[in-house]
Each structure stands twice: as structure tokens, then as C-alpha cells.
Amino acid sequence: MQFANLNGVTLHYALTGDPRRRPLIALANSLGTDLRMWDEVIARLSAGYALLRFDVRGHGLSGTGTPPYRIADHAADLGALIRHVGARRAMLCGVSMGGQIALALAAGQPGLISGLMLADTADRIGDDAFWNARIAAIEKGALSSIVDPIMERWFSPAFRTADNPAYAGYRTMFCRQPVDGYIGSCIAVRDATLTDAARHIRVPTICVVGEQDASTPPALVRALADLVSGARYATIPNAGHLACVEQPEAFAELLHEFAAGLVTESMSHVGS
């Protein structure tokens, strides 16, 4: 396990490959998950990349710091972590809240970012009433009290079956997140409006969504793509909100194709 003390919090991360020798892809997890959500995706990626995963503050094995948070806090953590591992630039891939983190970092530190894959996310997710109701439910009955409706938002019906061990595992992952950290991040997403940030992105971007996403539906993700200049848009069949979990092969294929295009573009400018 790898840990770093950055921005006043201990971050748990996993780095494979040398980002000083290979292009770096940094992956940001969604609300209520941890870096293990990327396991099946990175297993399908080429060895030609360095890969960085981390538990956002308040999740997994990372410290909680001082909640509540802002998306800007999570973005600052990711930027510091990219520098900590010795990378000069990184392509970012984030899901849901992780997508908002990637978007905020690209807007705030554009020189650090080579490209964006924004998955199952939006410049604005939910409204104040939605998030306040979720926070109140957790404070009254803990994370386990809302796990069923959360899973309905995360996964397609085909994935949510009693005989699917991965589904059981993700239920457990959600229930075991630190409550203070989860609520702190709910507040971050509640208070985040990244419309202007999206309009100012100037790096290659692709917006991806599971066709059965019940949390950030395809129309919402398409609207995000329309905000970002030149952004591509793609859907992943037979997948809900966590498309990287339900369809890791299709997700990894899109990620690899996009990242390979960034490398080719970068090499074409060498010496120009």
C-alpha cells in the first residue's frame, strides 16, 4: 500500500509504472467507492501507461481531513498527488464525483492536464433538496439505510442480482465508507456548479455514459459534452452509472483509444 501526506490529509494511492517514463493516466473514484473500483479496467489497459489510482479524502483508506469538503479540495489533492509521483502532466479519467474532480483540476491547473475522460458525470449533479435529503437519511440511519436506492442508481437491473458476487461486494464497499467523509463529499457535490469550468476546458475531452445510468442519464452527460469545446460523446451499452464496473472491457477500450490518441498528438508536436 502507498500513502502520502498532502494538503493536510493522508491519501491512499496505488501507482503502477513510472510516470517519468510513460504517459500517466490518473483515475478518480466516485462518491461512495474507493480505488478498487478501477481494478477490472486497469487489468485491461496496455502496459505502456503509468496508472495512478487513489482514495479521495474521506473514502477508503485515505484520511478524512476536516469535512465538509469542496470539489476544489478533492481536485487539489489529485493535483498534489500527480506531482508527488513525479509526473509533469497526466490524462485524467473520473467517474461521477471523480469526473467533477477531474473537470475542476483541468480548469484550475490546465498545464498539468493532457486530456479528460469524464464518465457518468455532469457539471451539476442533483439539487440542494436531493443532497440534503440524502444527508438527513444517513444521519438518521447510517449508510446501510440507503444502500438499496443507491445501488439502483449505480447499477443496471441485470447487475443487481443476488447471485452476482460483485454486486454484493459493491454494497459492502459503500456501507463501509467513513460516514463523515461520505457526508463531507455529498456536500462537495451538492455545492458544485462547474458549468463555467466546463466552458473553459481546452484539452481533448471525451464524455462517456452508461446507457442505463439512473444517476447522470445520457442526456445530462451529453449536455456536459456540449459545454466542452470539441468534446466527444460516447455511450456504453448494458451499463448503469458505474459503467467502468459493469462493462470494464468496453470502458477500458474507450479509455485506451482516447489515451493513445493523446500520445500520438503529443508526439506529432515534438520538434514542431
Q: What's the total number of strands? A: 8
Helix content: 40-55%
CATH architecture: 3-Layer(aba) Sandwich
Q: In the residues, how many domains can be counted?
A: 1
CATH class descriptor name: Alpha Beta
Overall shape: it is globular
The CATH superfamily label reads: Alpha/Beta hydrolase fold, catalytic domain
Q: Strand-residue fraction?
A: 15-25%
- Low-confidence spans: 267-272
Class from secondary-structure proportions: alpha/beta
C-alpha end-to-end distance? 41 Å
Read across the widest sheet, the strand sequence of neighbours is 1-2-4-3-5-6-7-8
The chain-level mean pLDDT equals 95
Largest sheet: number of strands, sense, barrel closure: 8 strands, mixed
- The DSSP helix count reads 11
CATH third-level topology: Rossmann fold
**Topology as a string of helices (H) and strands (E):** EEEHEHEHEHHHHHEHEHH
Radius of gyration: 17 Å
Report on the architecture of this protein.
The chain has 272 residues and is an alpha/beta fold. The protein has one domain (2-268): Rossmann fold (3-Layer(aba) Sandwich), CATH 3.40.50.1820. Helices cover 42% and strands 17% of the residues. The protein is built from eleven helices and eight strands. The protein has helices at 39-42, 71-84, 97-108, 128-141, 147-154, 165-175, 179-190, 195-199, 218-227, 243-246, 248-268, and strands at 2-6, 9-16, 24-28, 50-54, 90-95, 113-119, 205-210, 232-236. Strands 1-2-4-3-5-6-7-8 form an eight-stranded mixed sheet, sandwiched between helices. It is globular. The chain starts with a strand and ends with a helix.
